[in-house]
């Protein structure tokens, strides 16, 4: 009897990872019969699948974005295991990226594979922390997979934001932040830093913030900015999606100081290109140190790199004598994180 | 060094000039000597440390970072100093106290090629990521954050509530860290002595003429020449040529610099001789010819022969150590007329007073002037002293009426700062013939001012509603809007597809009614051939 080569039951295809015996896909870039979704960001969680397997929080986020998942969904809580077709077992483990985000541990033929989706190692008041779980193959993201990316402590960035708010010209601070995850984390961190004033929201932020609150994340007093007179917004903090920063929408605000909460803000030219006056280096992805630390701790036999700046991470694996390969998966974009 | 690093980052990210001024003024006011002086030098002139070059940074990093990871990082970040500041390994244990700017400067000045690697590494170990960036930028003299000497001087004046003109005058001849300058401005010490150095003196400037008429018994009229305003200073055997902003351009015009050997300070217009239209033979060529000489550090012999420079003199500020600036213009003029025959006639002549009987006569003479090198007329009060800047009532400039042409809006781009949400930079064009006979609409210029806030709102809305294509940040419009563009002159240009380029174009009026009435591609903008030649 010939043995199948190791891990041949999990096939990287251009639009996602295919779990062959279960005929299921992880974060597929197009509609499939069965999809295992790591988290609610649009590049990972697309609509239209026959069956969506995800954490209850991720399913709630998807329902908010795409309407009710008509055809079917299977909620899997953190720590729970579901058995898929062909006897493949899938366990959802916290990834620390955003509310509901999970790494998916797959077990089949005596082999253990973890697919991280997106993750970070820093504390985040809006979701449980990443759990290090042993495995044979570790499929990791590499959004910030360059050694220049070292996110500073978030307390430093909050201090910058709060200092900018206390200007003497009655300007407001307009923070561009991803509508899912980043916005709520920034709000929760502001609250943790003792900021109790109303935080004003762009219309696109409201429903997601309510969803977070429904899941027990306290965000304090939030108000929609629509219809509020300019004068009432002096020295306040307003949160909007990054695309609205330089949009006509922002003309309603009192001479806003443009801030952007993103890991890309580490690089000055990126901040300048976006016309950002106050770059806040805040990311929901692992930075270089977190990526390398995580691979070291998980200590897999093989590391597969899905998306991001994979070349540098592969080089690091080479330098530390680790077996690694890049999966050419398409469609995972994170320009705004 | 931390404060300097913070200033550097804030300046780079702040779009508005006023906010930059406030940041810089605040820094100069709050930072002790000599740090603020060194910082000022680093931001403006740049400091030169011959032992520290970009190659040193690369070799320091090669000892600390894997070459592949370095290359990938450098390619992504796009700047060697920034990449190094991000990749520099943090030292073990507690970081030593950060150095002051003065300590950094003193240390780097004392380095040699041999000691530079260890010395720079020690400094890097004492700084955080932003501090390392600031250090590497300071050490390699590549700040590139858009702080002009002028902006720095205005900020200095703002910081200590002194006049910009005084700052300009005393600044020259001072070297970093400008201790006497700070001592004067911050502590009320007497100003630095300036009479024995070839220093720049702030220019006297003119207001645009708004009155209907002036009494020519009180005001003298001179031509305003279309070159670059310069000041030529000769003292103690040294000569300098300064531009209007106070930049030393002696090396760009060596023939002029070498020609002045009389101790004096002259104000005049730098022009080049050459082919020209409408003027007297052997006179000044148009600005276009002069442009080829500007911005060149090395001047070839061919260039000196083809476009020789000379200065048409307006005024005499100082002669033989005697400061004439308090004197009346008429008296200075007499001294100037007496001096000119003693100067090298190939390099210096005098700007003639226009012999107009009265203001109407002057208007008539002005309207007949066809010399390309004439930009308009200057009116100078006969008893005016030579004072720095623009003083109401003394000097007026009466430019030629601008040329006007109707152009079609072709492309628009968003502005920066307060205008970042508005399409406010406009590219416009003219048809090169009859649009019905297959003529092309060719871009002839770009303008981003001349309109009111209300008109800007209208233009922004128009662009958004009439976009037919997007190229990155640029929107192409459907060519349905026509506006009248005012400009000072036009010259041929190989860089423009239309073959012509305008000088100082601005939008003078939006032709909303016509555009609405006719709609569609606007065919009534005339061809550049017909309207752009004068």
Overview of the molecule:
The complex is a heterodimer of chains A (337) and B (534). Chain A is α/β, with parallel strands linked by helices. Chain A contains seven helices and 19 strands. Chain A has helices spanning 56-66, 154-165, 182-192, 206-214, 268-273, 288-298, 310-319, and strands spanning 10-13, 16-19, 24-26, 34-36, 51-54, 73-75, 81-83, 89-94, 102-108, 111-115, 137-142, 173-176, 199-201, 222-224, 237-240, 257-261, 278-280, 302-308, 323-326. Chain B has three domains: 2-140, DNA ligase, ATP-dependent, N-terminal domain (DNA ligase i, domain 1, Orthogonal Bundle), CATH 1.10.3260; 204-399, D-amino Acid Aminotransferase, Chain A, domain 1 (2-Layer Sandwich), CATH 3.30.470.30; 403-531, OB fold (Dihydrolipoamide Acetyltransferase, E2P), CATH 2.40.50. The radius of gyration of chain B is 27 Å and the shape is globular. In chain B, strands 13, 14, 15, 16, 17, 18 and 21 form a seven-stranded antiparallel β-sheet that branches. In chain B, strands 4, 5, 6, 7, 8 and 9 form a six-stranded mixed β-sheet that branches. The interface between A and B is medium-sized, with 27 and 26 residues.
Give the SSE layout:
The complex is a heterodimer of chains A (337) and B (534).
Chain A: E1 10-13, E2 16-19, E3 24-26, E4 34-36, E5 51-54, H1 56-66, E6 73-75, E7 81-83, E8 89-94, E9 102-108, E10 111-115, E11 137-142, H2 154-165, E12 173-176, H3 182-192, E13 199-201, H4 206-214, E14 222-224, E15 237-240, E16 257-261, H5 268-273, E17 278-280, H6 288-298, E18 302-308, H7 310-319, E19 323-326
Parallel strand pairs in A: 3-4, 4-5, 5-6, 10-11, 11-18, 12-15, 12-16, 13-14, 13-15, 16-17, 18-19
Antiparallel strand pairs in A: 1-2, 2-3, 7-8, 8-9, 9-10
Chain B: H1 2-13, H2 17-30, H3 35-43, H4 54-62, H5 67-77, H6 80-87, H7 101-109, H8 116-125, H9 129-140, H10 149-160, H11 164-171, H12 179-187, E1 204-205, E2 207-208, E3 219-225, E4 228-235, E5 238-243, H13 254-259, E6 264-272, H14 287-291, H15 301-306, E7 309-319, E8 322-323, H16 329-339, E9 348-350, H17 359-368, E10 374-381, E11 389-390, E12 395-399, E13 403-414, E14 423-431, E15 441-447, H18 453-465, E16 467-471, E17 474-477, E18 482-487, E19 489-492, E20 500-503, E21 506-510, H19 512-518, H20 528-531
Parallel strand pairs in B: 1-11, 2-12, 7-9
Antiparallel strand pairs in B: 3-10, 4-5, 4-6, 6-7, 7-8, 10-12, 13-14, 13-17, 13-18, 14-15, 16-17, 18-21, 19-20
Helix pairs in contact in B: 1-2, 1-9, 2-10, 4-6, 5-6, 6-9, 10-11
